[in-house]
Design brief:
This protein is α+β, with helices and mostly antiparallel strands and 200 residues long. It is 18% helix and 41% strand. The protein contains four helices and 13 strands.
């Protein structure tokens, strides 16, 4: 999985006044959990642009005064009106411990059902995977090459390489729905066939 680097500085004072001052200065208060003790830090709000405002999933290297932490974003809070980032929680990664993370779904292949006029519906845009940090995928591939009209692709049909999908077996990733045009055409064809039989 691709990684991005965020540079920040550790916080000593984490009170409400200090936090407000941090936000007023265009900085985001953050915490890293998962280590021996939580690490509080701040970073420029612009530093999170490629992490937060993207459909892609990333691991993160947080650099604080010469110390690096390999982490993933665990939780984020936005202001209800302005949508500004208020706070971010990170979780520190360990090479030998599996973690659960949401990654995007990437559709590949061409569906015969879509070629016949069906409509592809993506039910799950992201899926939860469990893996060691080095095996975290950039995306989960959903191959629709065998989907006929009306078919569904379940998580059980997704190829998993060194990771597990954390969803029930009946979870539908995507499906090919019959479009109105295709349904109308099928109805008209059925009527025509019925009419032809009556004439005989």
């Amino acid at each position: 999985m691709k990684s991005i680097t965020i540079k920040g500085s550790e916080r000593e004072n984490v009170g409400k006044k200090a936090t407000k001052a941090v936000r007023d200065a265009g900085m985001v208060p953050c915490v890293i959990y998962g280590g021996n003790q939580p690490v509080h830090f701040v970073a420029d709000e612009r530093a999170f642009k490629d992490l937060v405002y993207t459909p892609n999933a990333h691991t993160v290297v947080v650099e604080l005064n010469g110390t690096s932490y390999n982490v993933i974003m665990q939780d984020i809070q936005f202001h209800p009106v302005s949508d500004k980032i208020l706070h971010i929680d990170f979780f520190q990664l360990s090479d030998d411990k599996e973690i659960i993370m949401e990654v995007p779904v990437k559709v590949t292949g061409t569906s015969p059902g879509v070629l016949l006029g069906g409509v592809l519906r993506l039910n799950q845009r992201r899926l939860k995977v469990k893996a060691l940090p080095k095996f975290l995928p950039d995306f989960v591939e959903a191959n629709i090459s065998e989907l006929q009209m009306g078919n569904k692709l379940y998580v059980t049909k997704i190829e998993t390489n060194n990771f597990k999908l954390m969803h029930p077996d009946n979870t539908v990733v995507c499906q090919v729905r019959i479009s109105r045009a295709a349904m109308k055409a099928a109805q008209e064809a059925a009527k025509a066939e019925k009419g032809a039989k009556k004439k005989k």
